[in-house]
Amino acid sequence: MLEHGGNLALASIQYRIPLEQWLDLSTGINPNGYPIAEIPASVWQRLPLDNDGLIEAACAYYGCQFALATAGSQAALQILPQLRNASKVAMPALMYQEHAKAWQHHGHQITTFDAYPDENIIKNSNVVLLCNPNNPTATQFAIADLLNWHAQLAAHGGWLVVDEAFMDVTPALSIAQHAHLDGLFVLRSLGKFFGLAGARVGFLLGAEKALVRAQEQIGPWSISGPSRFIAKQALTDRTWQQNTRLHLPACSQRLARLLTQYGLTPYSGTALFQFTLTNQAVAWQQHLAKQGIWVRLFSGNSKPGNSESGNSKSGTLGLARHSALRFGLPPENAWERLETALKNF
């Protein structure tokens, strides 16, 4: 299995610190997640209902025409490679690596590029994978660029797959409203913005026929009834969403200022994490871990697939070869603990 944020079990063993004593900043999950209401007993006692209003709530929230509920966006990204024959797949060198793993597992060829795909990559690829904003570099892609790349790919039967796991704070930048176009797929998740990673609820947005094929692969009851109940509440709670869209950016800016104060000026960031390049990344991670603070380390190792140059509008050429750290947001009662640990490096 690939290494992910949130792998506290291994950290707990390595540093001999009990799980409950860790401050986990490795995941990019909202530490002030959606409040869980009491779940009626009937929801636990019956099989999940397809007509419970969840899909309608998702389409209204994302502004799309069609949506397929999946067990997190992880389930969606594992299904897509099964829906087409062996293909040439291109993706940024530094991106959520479960995408590459899933496509390689089903016999597809992976090519990587820096930040932005250029004309040559689009022309010679059957599928282009992007995270918008990118995880972990926070690179953002304009809707106009995404639609242009999709049109070029679709012209020769290709796909554009956009993972929008960190998009919820900036819905105006989402391409979800165009997801009904053939050859365009958008992945969304309730894990990050809503802080509901344990519920395992995500959505695959796409053309109706493509989603029917995906549903046939997934089978029935992919999401539990209680998770569907919670997800519908979260997707329809406009007041909580609006307040959270104001709160998270302020917290992220506070985190950026704190890191800068102690020599870890962020290279980039989103409302849910800050990404810092440093040649002392390993030393920083170990220092923080000894004090029970877990951050995500990127060691600068090469990524799967062959590398091609690509167009780098944001100056990220070779970024995947740098060591870096990703800091998620601490809960309100943990800011002082984080600052003390940074100060003592």
Question: What is the structure about, briefly put?
Answer:
This protein is an alpha/beta fold. The chain folds into two domains: 8-33 and 239-343, Alpha-Beta Complex (Aspartate Aminotransferase, domain 1); 41-237, Aspartate Aminotransferase, domain 2 (3-Layer(aba) Sandwich). The protein has twelve helices and 14 strands.
Can you identify the CATH class of the largest domain?
Alpha Beta
Strand line-up of the largest beta sheet: 2-8-7-6-5-3-4-13
Number of domains: 2
User: Helix content range of the residues, please?
Assistant: 25-40%
Radius of gyration: 20 Å
Helix run count:
12
The termini sit apart by 31 Å
Unreliable spans: 310-317
Question: What is the string of SSEs from the N terminus onward?
Answer: HEHHEHEHEHEHEEEHHHEEHEEEEH
Average predicted local confidence, pLDDT: 92
SS strand fraction: 15-25%
Which descriptors apply to this entry?
345 residues, alpha/beta, Aspartate Aminotransferase, domain 1, Aspartate Aminotransferase, domain 2, 35% helix
